[in-house]
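The pair is quoted verbatim as follows:
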Amino acid sequence: MTFPSVSYLRELYIFRQRGKLHQAIQKGAIVKPLKCQNCYRETKLEGHHPDHKNALDVLWLCHKCHMQYHGLIIRKITPENYPIKRRIAAKFRKFAESKGFA
């Protein structure tokens, strides 16, 4: 019998925490702000979990600030640039559908 890797279990945990956040937004328990909490620009926002232990504790950041927060180089990121991440996302989507999460 083989066991899933620690990184797989961590990603699965994070995936479930994101699901809890999306459910809270849909139910109206959390209201997404209109402006980035760092630069105050009015744009599309991304939720950043400083700590995944509390799914509803989120910083709402624009893409630029979110990438800066993670220390990444700001550039246009597309699925074609990162095929491995695209495959991982597809794997989790398929798993979530099979378990009834999505």
About this structure: Residues 73-79 have pLDDT under 50 and may be disordered.
